[in-house]
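Morning run. Coffee first, then this:
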Amino acid sequence: MIPPPLALGLGFFVAGILGGYMKTVRYLSQA
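And here it is:
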């Protein structure tokens, strides 16, 4: 089992990576 705080941190980390990726894709498709 993963400790809740670690799971939460990992979730935020993954969400940040995905958010940045989507933002980059949207920016590139705009250009």
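The longest helix spans residues 4-30. Good start to the day.
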